[in-house]
Amino acid sequence: MSDTREFDLVIWGASGFTGRLVAEYLFEKYGVNQELKWAMAGRNAEKLEKVRAEVADSSVPLIIADSLDEASLGEMASKTKVICTTVGPYGKYGSKLVDACVAHKTHYCDLAGEVLFIRESVDKHHEQAKADGTKIVHSCGYDSIPSDMGVYFIQKEAKASKGSPAKAIKMRVKDSSGSLSGGTYASMMDTMEQAAKDQSLFFKLINPYGLNPEGKQSGPDKADLREVLFEEETQSWIYPFIMASINTRIVRRSHALIDFAYGEDFEYSEANMAGEGDEGKAKAMKEAGIMAAIMARPGTPQQEAMAKRMPKPGEGPSKEQREAGYYDWRFFITHDDGTKSVAKVTGDRDPGYGSTSKMLAECGVCLAKDQTPDTAGVLTPSTAMGDLLLGRLIANAGLTFSIEE
Ligand SMILES: NC(=O)c1ccc[n+]([C@@H]2O[C@H](COP(=O)([O-])OP(=O)(O)OC[C@H]3O[C@@H](n4cnc5c(N)ncnc54)[C@H](OP(=O)(O)O)[C@@H]3O)[C@@H](O)[C@H]2O)c1
Predict the structure, then answer these.
(1) How many domains does the chain have?
(2) Does residue 1 belong to any structural domain of this protein?
(3) Probe ligand 1: pick from 184, 187, 315, 360, max atoms within 8 Å of CB?
(4) pLDDT tens across 320-371, in order?
(5) Are residues 150 and 243 in the same domain?
(6) Residue whose CA is closest, atom 26 of ligand 1?
(7) How far is the CA of 306 from the centre of ligand 1 (A)?
């Protein structure tokens, strides 16, 4: 890519709930026109100026680009090495920007947790982006960095300590504190509405290997957990994890993109842990019920009632809630020689926004500034950025990765 581009990075969607947090982080961490040349972008100049005054200062350049105006997207993509986008639902507003980034050979990263949008991006763009050396990287937030980079970290450690990669990893959320934004809820509903209208999309959504390359969509993993049960290995009641439907697909795509280096029988799953005994069971049942209500089928009275209680686009958790938030994940590992160990991944802010905004910003900076691995196409965080991203997440984004036992 030419070094003559005006910007290293543009954050598009900077007037939205998550985009403004990314802009705030970039301003605080990297300043303006220093090591990193960056700009804020959005569709509405007035709103963008207002947000800029709140989180940065007037020296941050602004770019106006609307998803309905392809020329504006092309112009934005041509000016920068990387675009970070928080304009969602991605299935509704995102695909033209990916087209523009591939056409202008501009690296791209987003927060998409939408399997159908990512599948379309893979089918449409992987080969061209690969040929051009462009990195298109989806799911650079809570979905799916802790999962994807957690497995990447564990397999590196397993190869170093055991001489071979782990055979199976179960990610279990031990604890977390955070809540949804209106934009995330709108994105979840958008995916469910699409799948409700078209059965072929529904099957794509439930395929555990649905983001793998065509012809490489089989393996030992089954559907995501859909019930409450007691798990001997973790000695805990477990219940479905809402993000498993995207995270597991990203981890499996990463594995496919490295030619199944952990073995074609490698297994991966995700769930929430609720603890032991009657208390654990009661918590698992209660939380599973709340999740089922949030995910109620679009158009049903249950979903309509839930939608009224959910935040609207642009709304989300307060600064106090974001700063008090955190997550604490455990990865239960089975090694090639049959031995077991446990790894831990944590984040120091609420998962969806405080931590996510730092992760997305660091992905953008990594793509713009670091000598990333020689990979290209529609990638995953680990296959696009590997060790360089791991280092940035630990040094700058408040994540920890460790082997516990
Ligand atoms: N993966 C994760 O962990 C994670 C975490 C957080 C969020 N997300 C995803 O990130 C996305 C954003 O979430 P959010 O809560 O920040 O949403 P939001 O507050 O509703 O922000 C959406 C942004 O998109 C912009 N936008 C809407 N239509 C547009 C168009 N036609 N052209 C240009 N810009 C347009 C909005 O601009 P205006 O300000 O002008 O309305 C706003 O800046 C969602 O898809 C959400 O699911 C993912």
Answers:
(1) 2
(2) no
(3) 184
(4) 999 999 999 999 999 999 999 999 999 999 999 999 999 999 999 999 999 9
(5) yes
(6) 87
(7) 20
Q: Same structural domain for residues 162 and 295?
A: yes
- Residue 363 belongs to domain spanning: 7-142+355-397
- One domain, residues 172 and 245: yes
What spacing in Å lies between the alpha carbon of 19 and ligand 1's midpoint? 7
Distance of CA 364 to the CA centre of its chain: 13
CB 195 less than 6 A from any atom of ligand 1: no
CA-to-CA separations, 178 to 62, 319, 323, 352, 363, in angstroms, rounded: 31, 11, 10, 7, 22
Residues 284 and 311 in one domain: yes
Cβ of residue 15 lying under 6 Å from some atom of ligand 1: yes
64 DSSP β-pair partners: 42
Domain match, 234 and 310 both: yes
Residue 83 domain-assigned (yes or no): yes
- Angle value at C-alpha 261, between 377 and 165, nearest 5 degrees: 135
Position in ligand 1 atom list of the atom nearest CA 185 = 47
What is the spatial distance between Cα 335 and Cα 164, in angstroms, rounded to a whole number?
8
Whether the pTM exceeds 0.70: the reply is yes
Residue 178 confidence (pLDDT) above 60:
yes
Query: Under a CB-based contact definition with an 8 Å cutoff, are residues 397 and 362 in contact?
Result: yes
The finding on whether 176 has its CB within 6 A of some atom of ligand 1 is no
Query: Which of 350, 365, 389 is the C-terminal boundary of a domain?
Result: 350
How many angstroms separate the alpha carbon of residue 166 from the centre of ligand 1?
A: 37
Q: What is the pLDDT of residue 1?
A: 59
Q: Whose CA is nearest to atom 44 of ligand 1?
A: 88
Give the tens place of pLDDT for each residue, 285-316. Answer: 999 998 888 888 888 888 888 888 888 888 88
